Amino acid sequence: MRILLLSLFACLLFTGCKQQEKQTPENISETTTSYLDYSGSEDQFTGGIRMIPITTPKGTFKVWTKRVGNNPTKKVLLLHGGPGATHELYECFDGYLPNEGIEYIYYDQLGSYYSDKPEEGDTSLWTIEHFVDEVEQVRKALGLNKDNFYLLGQSWGGILAMEYAFKYQDNIKGLIISNMMSSIPEYNQYAKEVLGPQMDPEVLKEIMELEANEDFANPRYNELLFKHHYTEHVLRMPIEEWPESITRCFNHLNPSVYVFMQGHSEFGISGDASLKEWDVKDQLKNISVPTLVIGAKYDTMDPAHMEWMSKEVQNGRYLFCPNGSHLAQYDDQKVFFSGLVDFINDVDDDSF
Fold first, then answer.
1. Is the peptide bond before 185 cis (omega within 30 degrees of 0)?
2. Which of 18, 74, 283, 315 gets the highest tally of CB atoms within 10 A of its CB?
3. Element (H, E) at 198
């Protein structure tokens, strides 16, 4: 019996050692090392950054991109909002997607902070048609295709993602429309009839007076917006607690692009902004690629409309962030990233 016990102990000890051996840093890091291996790639020297030339009627310009990770079947191109904002809105993705082995590409659209900026005052390139063509040129340069290409757009980026899908969905493996409605007129209505009345009447009155007088440069305008609107519907936390990446993005916003396409007002799109009449509700039924639509309870966009969008496309899913606002990737992170990762994995293994 003693010999049997000793043999059993030795066996357990050996098994434990083998199990422990499986948990060595060398073995654990094998997948991680492959994911972060840039050797032999043309962007190794720059740490994943590539300035991609874009051909336009106004000449050739370069746009900034940065690849994070390697995955032959899961590559997510990130379209930032604004228009005229930056990839910095997405920097929290670093905290989630690498652990899932999902490759993603930061990208500043033309006119945004890290990319080239055409001549000041020339707005001829600030069109949906230009930006759709720009995304297609970026796609080709990065070698993205229907076997690996996930396109994620948030806010204005969501508009761009939809418009790209209408023209080039055969190039896409999966589409993610985040925090963006399919109709600006309906967004304006939601802002006026739902969001406005939630604000203190006196505060709303003062904001509306400033807008009526086109006094957008008045520091009071931004003061009121940040305190009473942004912290409720853009990023639900005190401004002093906002991530540095978000404050940096606000500081880097290109107002020339933003105002021309979006306008000054934060309560809908008004004036002569070029996106004022944009509406593609009737075209959603033409999107056949797997599509995830993300909405949030406190968003500037109507979550009910975005749920409807997910049913209007041919192959859709809705992700609702119950604690989120317009930047749900920050104020409802666990729900946002869990749903995003599940969607990408489900499409990848054909279980969507």
1. no
2. 74
3. helix 196-198
Residue 196, both tokens:
């406005």
**Residues annotated as catalytic (active site), given as ranges:** 155, 299, 326
Each residue's pLDDT, cut to its tens digit, for the chain (352 residues) gives 333 333 433 343 333 433 434 444 444 455 557 999 999 999 999 999 999 999 999 999 999 999 999 999 999 999 999 999 999 999 999 999 999 999 999 999 999 999 999 988 799 999 999 999 999 999 999 999 999 999 999 999 999 999 999 999 999 999 999 999 999 999 999 999 999 999 999 999 999 999 999 898 899 998 999 999 999 999 999 999 999 999 999 999 999 999 999 998 877 888 899 999 999 999 999 999 999 999 999 999 999 999 999 999 999 999 999 999 999 999 999 999 999 999 999 999 999 9
Q: State phi, psi for 145 to the nearest 5 degrees.
A: -150, 180
**Pair 193, 162: CB distance under 8 Å:** no
Overall size of the chain counted in residues:
352
* Residue-wise burial string across 106-134, b where 16 or more C-beta atoms lie within 10 A, e elsewhere: bbbbbbbbbbbebeeeeeebbebebbbbb
First-to-last C-alpha distance (Å) of the chain: 56
